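Section: Multi-chain targets

For targets with more than one molecule, the full set of components is provided together so that the structure can be written out for the assembly as a whole rather than chain by chain. Components appear in the order listed by the source. The example entry contains two components.
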Amino acid sequence: MPKLDLSQLPSHSNCSYPGKLSDGFEGRSAQALGDPSGITQFGVNIVTLQPGAQSSLRHYHIQQDEFLMMTEGELVLIDDDGEHVMRPGDCAAFPAGDANGHHLINKSDVPAAFLVVGTRTPTETAIYSDIDMKVEVDADGYSFTRKDGSPLTADQIGDKND
Amino acid sequence: MPKLDLSQLPSHSNCSYPGKLSDGFEGRSAQALGDPSGITQFGVNIVTLQPGAQSSLRHYHIQQDEFLMMTEGELVLIDDDGEHVMRPGDCAAFPAGDANGHHLINKSDVPAAFLVVGTRTPTETAIYSDIDMKVEVDADGYSFTRKDGSPLTADQIGDKND
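Its structure, encoded as tokens over all components, is:
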């Protein structure tokens, strides 16, 4: 039925970043609300960040709009303009193609969470603001490379075989 | 910048329903968050309902997914399965084409509000569950008719010239 029972929807802590870039994301979990409810045109997640955790590496999307509303605790939104404190009810929007990369960090000592919505598109490219990396996404999955398309180096991702 | 200053975004109480069908929507207001932030792929609104107000006539969308999260107060979600109490943090999703029409009513004595997201598509049709009406939306605006496409009657909408 349309009303969701959030207590029955699983959370996951998967991180798709290659090698050592996935280190430090243990404190991030996401509860997907779109798939279980049959929605296909945009994704909806509640992302919870434990103290010290971050939402993602700072990035922006080429094809997909993104929107978030804070639901719990306090986070710091970091973008090209600096740091912005986000509290429950605060919202932020990231239009597709706007090169102002963003992520959120929990600098408090209690968990914090936000609802995030992103368009679903058959393909997508995201650019990482602070490192030489981009990701191309299609039906086959994620392909992380340097911004010029060349492979990431061991210097960037270590030699972990994942 | 990405973080929105909600105190600076206007609310409106416009109601597009024809004739007397727009009666009783004075207690509904919506604050658009998508347009001011440059997002184009989905719409985002915070809808506030005063005591007694409803979100819309009960309806479902043919082409557009819809998702909402309660942010304030208490509302009753009405769908084919009956009434469901919605409190802050509660979510509901309405996949495109799912013929389970819905709306929300404020049966409490204080204002209540929810965040709602809907895909933007070039055209859209919505079907009203409890009356013989549909609406077709395109770049030219809204066209309300009976479900068979014939004009609404004075019996349905009165003779108000709007």
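Chain A has a mean pLDDT of 96.
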